[in-house]
Amino acid sequence: MTDNNKEGGSVTHTSDFVVVGAGSGGCAVAGRLSEDAATSVALLDAGGRNDNWVVTTPGALVLMVAGTINNWAFNTVPQKGLNGRVGYQPRGKGLGGSSAINAMVYIRGHRADYDHWASLGNTGWAYADVLPYFKRSEDNADFDGEYHGKGGPLAVNKLRSGNPIQQTFLQAAQEGQFRIRDDFNGEDHEGLGIYQVTQKNGERWSAARAYVHPHMGKRANLRVETNALATRILFEGKRAVGVEYRQGKELKHIRARREVLLAAGAFQSPQLLMLSGVGDADTLGKRGLASVHHLPGIGQNLQDHPDFIFGYMSDNPNFAGISLKGMPRLLRAILQYRRERRGPLTSNFAECGGFLKTRPDLDIPDIQLHFGMAMVDDHGRKRHGGTGFSCHVCLLRPKSRGSVALASADPEQAPLIDPNFLSEEADLEAMVAGYKTTRRLMETPSLRALQQKDMFTADVHTDDDIRNILRERVDTVYHPVGTCKMGTGDPLAVVDPKLRVHGLEALRVVDASIMPTLIGGNTNAPTIMIGEKAADMIKGEMR
């Protein structure tokens, strides 16, 4: 029997469930399980409460994504497919996780994505199975009917920015002969339009605000520990019995009577498993870690959407940027936001976009666009004077597969992240097609009229030029998944369809890392769905 619970750390508390990571999945599962007063839940996160104006003001996302405020701000290993460049991977830190720093776009993905999961042997994960959990989570102010929910904890609304560029975008879509789409989460989502966002009354509605903040101090059975970095899952034999974590200078243990629920995200869930002795035994041994359970799929199967950004300078007053002329507008926006919770500070920047096919013979869209109300270069880390706009294009179902590995046995050291972008030739060629499709939109009269200067693509003409610029500038659009793959009879599978870790007891993974394949869209709403479904499955087993 292996017992890795022998070393330091005082036992501070015991709960029925210990949830590690308060991101979209962790908040949802903790919030739902703690609805039963007889079930105690402890929720741990390495960051803070994330309940201040920087998080709640949508426009303040620029302060977080490009830096280290509420953000792990990870880097990748050098990417062979991107000319050896090191990529950037912002990940939310604190209650709400990445839902506290993201662009708030409410997208579920295509029904075919979930039906594909089920076809791989993941019973209970077809679209018809997961739709009720999307609806249960949702409080949609604009849409209802078969595909939408009212009264759930997650507020979903139309933008309140009032930006007239939205109508310019729709006009450009018509000029380019693209379909206009009002609702991207209904029967079909092909087309361009204005995104719904996870906001309420013009404020960000993170997963923490939906599922955790309202109950802190009110539910005696919900214990929330912030600034608590999980360092190890504790095992007795093959059973998870608790978590070791560092809070300040103290090393503490928290015990789980029923289960440990790991929800630290696509990078840190596999990292914590490996630090705890779960993973490829030979690789762990090389890091000086004793093997609790050999599970070679942990950290494998990393998938992410490769993304290219068109950027333009523009003197249109409705775009954001850095300029003296823009200061009066910013001051007016601050006053308007304080008064009405409307205007530019409610913008998620990626206000418009949609899903397109690069070839008419495709069954479903293969690219997604995010049209931004500012000119973005290197995730906002490279600043340019003046105002402008951007248009992202990402490949929805890339064939490239990457990995997450330990850099060392030190829990405070970031993992080695390798998305392996554009390693498959098919991904590069699909991105070339995506580039051309997006350029067609950018060259419509309505959008051409806004462009003063093409920042990145003025000299791109041939297919080889496109391939070169893609390798020079592609990076993530912030949707990493897959590193604790759900599956049965698959050598790389880490969890079963109940999200239980294969070969271990009382341990589940409840975040985007369980996705066997990347869904075609933004990953926040699907990860909340995973938390909702996990809570329902657990409650069913407790009855």
UniProtKB/TrEMBL annotation:
Whether Flavoprotein counts among this entry's keywords is: yes
The UniProt keywords, alphabetically, are: FAD, Flavoprotein
Organism superkingdom: Bacteria
| Pfam families the UniProt entry points to | GMC_oxred_C (PF05199), GMC_oxred_N (PF00732)
Query: Residue ranges of the Glucose-methanol-choline oxidoreductase N-terminal domain?
Result: 92-115, 265-279
Which one of the record's GO molecular function terms can you name?
oxidoreductase activity, acting on CH-OH group of donors
Which prosthetic group or cofactor does it need? FAD
Belongs to which family?
Belongs to the GMC oxidoreductase family.
Q: What is this protein called?
A: Glucose-methanol-choline oxidoreductase
- The scientific name of the source species is Bradyrhizobium macuxiense
